[in-house]
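User: Before I run my own analysis I want an independent prediction to cross-check against. Here's the chain; please return only the C-alpha cells and, at the end, one sentence I can use as a sanity check.
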Amino acid sequence: MSTTETAARPGEVDTEVRNRRTFAIISHPDAGKTTLTENLLLKGGAIRLAGQVKARGDNRRARSDWMKIEQDRGISVTSAVMTFEYEGIICNLLDTPGHEDFSEDTYRTLTAADSAIMVIDAAKGIEAQTLKLFEVCRLRDVPIITFINKIDREGQDPFDLMDEIASKLALDTVPMIWPAGMGGLLRGIFDPVNNRFVPYAKPGTEHSDEEPPSLDGDKIAEYAGADELVKFREEMELAREGSPAFDIDAYRAGHMTPIYFGSALRKLGVRELLDAVVRFAPPPRAQPAATRTVEPTEAKVSGFVFKVQANMDANHRDRVAFMRICSGKFKRGMRLKLSGSGKTIGVHNPILFFAQDRELLDEAYAGDIIGIPNHGTIRVGDTLSETEDLTFTGIPNFAPEILRRVRLDDPMKAKHMRRALESLAEEGVTQVFKPEIGANWIVGVVGQLQLEVLASRIASEYDIKVHFEPAPYETARWVSAEDPAELKRFMEAHRGNMATDRDGAPVFMGKSAWELGDARARPRGGLIGRGSQGMQGIAGNFSDYWDLVKDVWQTGVLGHSIGDILIAIGIFGVFYVLRGLFTRFVLAIADRWVDRTETKIDDYIRDAIRSPLRFLFFALGFFFATEYLAFEDVARSFTENLNRSLIIVAIFWALYNCVGPVSQGIKKLERVLTPEILDWLIAGAKTAVVLVAVATILQTWGIQVAPIIAGLGLFGVAVALGAQDLFRNLIGGMSILIERRFGFGDWIKVDGVVEGTVEKIGFRSTLVRQFDKAPVYVPNQHLSDNAVINYSAMTYRRISWKIGVEYRTTHEQLQRICDDIRAYLASADDFVQPPLAPLFVRIDSFGASSIDIMVYCFTRTTVWGEWLEVKEALAYRIKQIVEGAGTGFAFPSRSIYVETLPPSADEVVAARKD
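Assistant: C-alpha cells:
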C-alpha cells in the first residue's frame, strides 16, 4: 500500500473503493462467530493456523481474542479489526462481542461496517442477542449474509431455519449453499449455482483437518447412498423452487439475505462464504453527516472514530483510536481537523490492524479501518476531516445502567487507580464519576460482565487489585442548562447527588428513578434563605412552619385528617388480625370435625368456602374503615359500590368453588355422559358463574350490560365474524364427545396434524401430549373434520410388505418361499389366524426388476415396541427363507440390449469399393 505520490491519480480512488469490503460478524454467544473469524482469516491467507477459541494450555489462541480474559474464558469482550487481502479485494473484518453486556461496543462497531455476516447455530436458531444486533443493522439498512453454522451436529431442519429467519427478521431468504444431510448423516454441501459439491470428512478421518476440496456436482453420488441422494435432490429442488431468485439489489437494500450452510470448525462452507462477501457485499457506502451525505469517492479525506482501545500495547500505555475512513485517499503524515476540539492533528504513525498486531501503513482509502495513536485527545464519535467541518451522525451513546463504588485493596495506589479508571473510561464502554461529597470513585457500565472485565484489566494492565460494591445510586444523567446561573443553583440544591465525569462535566446521580424525575420536575434554588432577621425572625419562621405542619395534618387526604386515616388503617388492621385468628382457631376446629366424618361432601364444602371466608374479613375491614371515615357525595358512592363489589366477589367465589363438590355428586353419570362431557359441563358451569359475577359487579357500578351488548353494532358483527372459528371448534368438540372418537389417555394420530396421548378435551382445543412430552393444542375442528386413528382402540396391528426376489428365481423356489413364509405365520403365536383376520402370502406382481411377493398379516399385539419386535423377527425369518431357497432379493437395475453392431471401418471401405 505504500506510495510516494502526494495526491490521488484520476480514477484511483474509485478503483480502490470498489476493491474494499468492510464487514462485521454478529451472533449470539457460542454460535461459533470467533471460530468462523479464524477460518476466514486462514482462507484469506492472513494466518497459517486457525485454533479453537476454547483451547487451553497451548499457543492455539483466537487471534481476534487477544485480551487475557478473552483467552482465559474463551469469549469475546471487545471488538477487533483484521485486514487481509483475498482475490485482489481488501477485506476489513470487524469481529464483535457476542455477549449482551458488551452490546454498546458492538453497536458502535456496526456503524463502521458496510455489511454483516449473521452467524446462527443450526440447533438453536435465532437467539435473543442475534435478534437485537439484527435490529441495529436494520436501522442502518446494513445488508446481511446469513451463515448457518454447526451443521456437523444435530440441528433443526434447514427449511424450519429458513422459515424462522423469514418470519422473525422479515427477510427474503435465498439458499445459496444447501446441506447434504446434517449431523451424523452430513455428507457435504452443494452449490447449485455453480454445480459444485464439497464433501465432509468426519473428525478423526484422514482428511478431517484439511480444507475440503470442491468437486464437480455429479461427484455427490460417490458420497451419498441412493436413498440419501434422492432425498437430497428433492430438498434442493424444493428449496430452489420455493425461494425467490437472488437479487443483489434487494440484498444490498437490506430486504434479502443469501443463506449459506456450513461448519466453521470443520472449515466447511467457509470458502464459499468468503467468496460471497467478495462478490455480493457492497463496497464502502455513503455516510450521513450533520450537514450532508459524504460519498466515498470524494477527493478530500474524512472519517469518524467508532472505538478507542487502551493498552493494546501494555508496555507503552497507549490509546489507539479506530477510525473508519469515509472518503478520499489518506496518506501517512496528513494533518486532519478534529471535530471535538477544532484542532488540527498530524497523523504520523497510522496503524493497520490485525487484532492486537499492527503495522504502519502509508495510505488507505474509504472503507479502511486505521488506528491513530493518541493520548486522550481523540474521543469516540469524533470526526476527522481534511478541510471541511464535518460531524458524522449515528454513533450511539448509552447512559450507564449499573453503578458501583470502587474499593481499592491497597490505599497507597489511589493515584494509579485514578489514572487506570480514566484511561479505560476513554474507550467509551465504561463511565467513571467522582462524587462531590465523598472520596470513592463510582463506575457505570451497561452490563454486569463489564465489571469483571474492568477488574481483570486493571489487575493485569496496571497491577492494581480493586473490587466493586453497591453504590447508593441507581441512575446517572448529565446536567446542562442554557443559563449558567440556573445550572449553579441546581447543583447547589442537589449537592449530595452531584458528581463529575472524567471531563469535569456535572452529572446528577439519582438514588431511584423517582428521585431523577423529581429533580427534573422541581429544580430548586438554594437551601438557605439570604434574609437575616435575628432570633425573632427565626422564631416567627418556626411558628409559621408549625402552623403549616398542623394544616397538613388536619387537611390530610380528601378532607380527612391524617389522624383519622391512621385510625381507619388501624381498623382495617384489626380485621386483618381477626382473619388470622379465624383461620388459626375456627377453621382449625372445623377441619378436625370434618376429618372425623365419613362422608366427603363436608370436606368439599369446607375447601370451597375456606378462601371466600378469609376474604370476607378483608371486605369487613374495608367496610368499617370506610364507614369510620364517613365519605360524602362522590367518594361515599364510590366506597359503597366498592364494598358491594367485594361482597359479590366473596359470594361468587364460594359458588365457583362449590362447582367442584357438586360435580363429585354426579360422578355416577359418567357411564351415560362420559367423563369428557362431564368435564365440559363443569367448565361451562364455572364459566357461567364468572360471567354472572362480572355482570353483577357491572350492574352495581351502574353499567347496564344489555345495552352494551345491543349497542355493539358493527363491532358486534366483526366480533361475530371473528368468532366463527371459535364456534366451529366448539361444535367440533361436541362432535368428538358425542361420537366418542377418543377419550382421556387414548393414543391417537391425525396425519399431518399430531400424534400422541389425549390429556384434555377443551371447548376450543384438545391437549395432546406428544411422545417427546411436548404439549400440542389442536383445534377441535381439525380432529372432527379429519380422519383420526385411535391406536388405543385398535384390536390388531397390520404388517403389509412387498418382497421382491430376482427374476432368475425358479417356479419351485417361488412356491417354496411362499409355503415357508405361510407356514411360519401359521405356526407363530404372534400372528392372528383366519377367520379372525386375513392372512395372505401370494405372488403379487412382476415388477420392473423383481418378482413381488405380498405378505399381508396382523399381529396380536398393538403395542408399538412389541409390534416392532414381531416385525423384526418376521424380517429375519423371510431373509432366512429366501436365502435357504437358493435365490436372493432383487434391486433396481437397467439393462441395454444391442441387436446389431455398427460396421467397422474396414467393412465400410470394402463396401464402397464394391
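Sanity check: The first strand starts at residue 20 and ends at 27.
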